[in-house]
Design a protein that fits this description.
With 139 residues, this protein is of the alpha+beta class. It is built from three helices and six strands. 28% of the residues lie in helices and 42% in strands. It is globular and about 65 Å long. The N and C termini lie far apart (55 Å).
Amino acid sequence: MTSDAMRTQVLAANRRFYDALEALDMAAMEACWDTGSAAACLHPGSDWQRGWDEVRAGWEAIMAATGYIEFEIRAPRADVVDPVAWVTCIERITTSGPQGPSVVEVAATNVFVLDATGWHLTVHHASPVIRPAPAALPE
């Protein structure tokens, strides 16, 4: 059985990940991750990045190309099977570009592992949210 305290720890680790990304802070991002060979990341429309070196390069490229990014995390749910936990959520992402603000929604699964220093992200998997168009009314 998983305690509420453990779920709270995992959700806090999850928020630290998004805070690091919002701050465009690579050192804070690295502190969130298990930086070994098991690290893996899949961004929408991209190939899998495997191992910390590839994952880090992916985040560095995103941060270098991003002037502003904000995450509203909707419906986060943490499940824990110690020493592994995962958070499923919807990322509502606001960015700013030459055309003004843009908002997209992404479904994400973040997998964490527990070590002596706390919970660290080992897999981030994000997929675009595609909502069906409303049904046409009969004429």
